[in-house]
Design brief:
Immunoglobulin-like; alpha/beta; 21 strands; single chain; binds zinc ion; seven-stranded antiparallel beta sheet; 30% helix
């Protein structure tokens, strides 16, 4: 399809490979006295900084080896055995609300994360409101993730997506090229004010329909790409409009500016704080189709997972039906997401979290029936769930069911987290240690292969990235402990290895992302 597809693939794998360079060990630098001083000062500052935090909030660990090596595991995010989230819609700002009461209520029912719609097409919530909300949830130990309606920023900003006839598609739907700088600046300003949030959730990171964007910037960018890949410029634009013979070529191209935006958001957010979690509220795959939303909305989630741009994905698995292998059922959603985004594994390259809908107004499901959805999500080994959306003590949305009726019927065993992952390498062996906040068994998987790769495939005439899994060697220790240590022997000297660790307890499973070490 592409003249330079081999080059593209090579470049992709190079970038993919770089994402797994999470551990950097440079002994040469350690011989540099100046660097050594900086390292010592960094350690002292780090120790001072971590004292006020509870164990579960320790996310970056610097280990001092007896022989002077310093290993820094970058962007190691503390992972809980179950993300129990609640989405708080912007509508909460339009009704009488009390953040402390909302936080106290959710804490009482075992919720450990909220996703608050602070940034969307209607503007940015008042700073005093956001500050009060963050403080309230943090006071109850609940993570605060700020939801940004990414390509819906803002109304009347002049960045709206354009239809083929030149008209504005919808005042809320924007062009990823024209809105690019505005979105980045908005996130930068937001994090400048609220650097203590725990994450950014990207919502609406896609086109609204197949009809956009045909603004002059998109047309120019497409024409350049078309010339590079097909050796000719666009002579008749009508052939590239929806329903026309070459529209799928345009649909393929238009994933690129969205991906560029996701990459730039990732780079910006991680440069501000590498421990901030970037999640995506995604349109869910279903009915064994890998291409559907990539084709129709330009949502290229598999690519973003493969590139490491997002830390976990929360597909909107909205349905009232649990079973059924096709259509809008929980089973169909989970099957497809695991197959194409997780390499066929429930423990995939990043956590898979079900965004579930309880609010259907007066036709909402009875809580007991909804409990079956949570049971099914847990049975399938997903990493958590987020309920859409909060209405209850401290903030009642008109016509929405009280969320406490739903939370009250759920079983909530105590969650645990993995922290303090450390690697100690020698020429022929490596010892990996970690802590868990509850006793669990220990698993370690390693390989000279990155474990997860992405392959460029085609389905019904449209391309997609398919995440694949190549199993490594598994070492299992069945002792139930909180201090874990596994030593790998018979390794080759001077070789890069990929590994991930897993802890399994009564409250679930935590699997880390793939990390690397290199033997000496
Ligand atoms: Zn455009």
């Amino acid at each position: 399809m592409f003249k330079d597809s081999i080059h593209l693939r090579k470049r992709f794998y190079e970038q993919f490979y770089k994402q797994y360079m999470l551990i950097k060990l440079d002994m040469k630098q350690m011989k540099n006295v100046r660097f050594h001083c900086i390292a010592v000062v960094s350690i002292i500052i780090s120790i001072l900084m971590i004292i006020p935090f509870a164990l579960s909030y320790l996310t970056t660990v610097i280990s001092i080896q007896s022989y002077g090596n310093i290993l820094t595991i970058k962007t190691q995010i503390t992972q809980k055995s179950e993300i129990r989230g609640v989405f708080i819609h912007e509508g909460i700002y339009g009704v009488p609300h009390n953040w402390t009461l909302i936080a106290e209520t959710l804490s009482r029912y075992g919720i450990n994360a909220v996703f608050v719609n602070d940034l969307n097409g209607n503007g940015w919530r008042p700073n005093s409101e956001i500050r009060a909300a963050i403080n309230a949830f943090h006071a109850y130990g609940i993570e605060y993730h700020s939801v940004i309606s990414t390509i819906l920023e803002w109304r009347n900003s002049g960045t709206e997506a354009i239809e083929p006839d030149g008209s504005i598609h919808w005042e809320y739907a924007h062009c990823p090229i024209k809105a690019h700088d505005l979105v980045l600046q908005t996130i930068k300003n937001y994090l400048g004010n609220f650097s203590d949030v725990d994450g950014i959730m990207l919502d609406y990171i896609r086109y609204n329909t197949q009809d956009t964007c045909y603004c002059p910037y998109c047309r120019a960018a497409f024409d350049e790409w078309y010339y590079q890949n097909y050796g000719e410029h666009v002579s008749d634009w009508t052939l590239f409009y929806p329903g026309q013979p070459n529209w799928t070529i345009y649909a393929e191209w238009r994933t690129l500016p969205v991906t560029q935006l996701v990459k730039d958001i990732h780079d910006l957010v991680k440069s501000i704080n590498p421990n901030l979690v970037i999640s995506e509220a995604a349109w869910t795959l279903f009915s064994d189709s890998a291409i559907y939303w990539r084709k129709w909305l330009g949502q290229d989630t598999a690519k973003w997972i493969a590139e490491g741009y997002i830390d976990y994905v929360a597909p909107m698995m909205y349905t009232k039906t649990v079973y059924g292998r096709s259509g809008e059922t929980l089973e169909s959603y989970i099957n497809s997401n695991i197959k194409y985004w997780m390499g066929g594994q429930s423990e995939g390259p990043i956590p898979l979290v079900a965004l579930l809908r309880i609010d259907y107004g007066t036709t909402s499901l009875p809580p007991e029936e909804f409990k079956l959805q949570i049971d099914y999500v847990r049975q399938r080994g997903l990493d958590g769930w987020i309920l859409w959306r909060y209405s209850g003590p401290g903030g009642y949305l008109s016509g929405s069911p009280d969320i406490t009726n739903y939370l009250a019927v759920l079983d909530m065993p105590t969650t645990f987290a993995i922290t303090h992952v450390n690697v100690d390498t020698a020429a022929n062996s490596a010892t990996i240690t970690w802590l868990t906040t509850l006793p669990t068994i220990s698993k370690l998987e390693y390989s000279t292969d990155p474990l997860f790769n992405a392959s460029w495939r085609v389905q019904s005439g449209f391309h997609f990235w398919n995440i694949t899994y190549t199993p490594g060697v598994m070492i299992i220790d069945y002792a139930n402990v909180t201090e874990h240590s596994i030593t790998i022997t018979s390794l080759s000297p001077g070789t890069r290895y990929y590994f991930r660790i897993q802890s399994i307890g009564t409250a679930g499973t935590v699997t880390t992302k793939v990390m690397t070490f290199t033997t000496s």
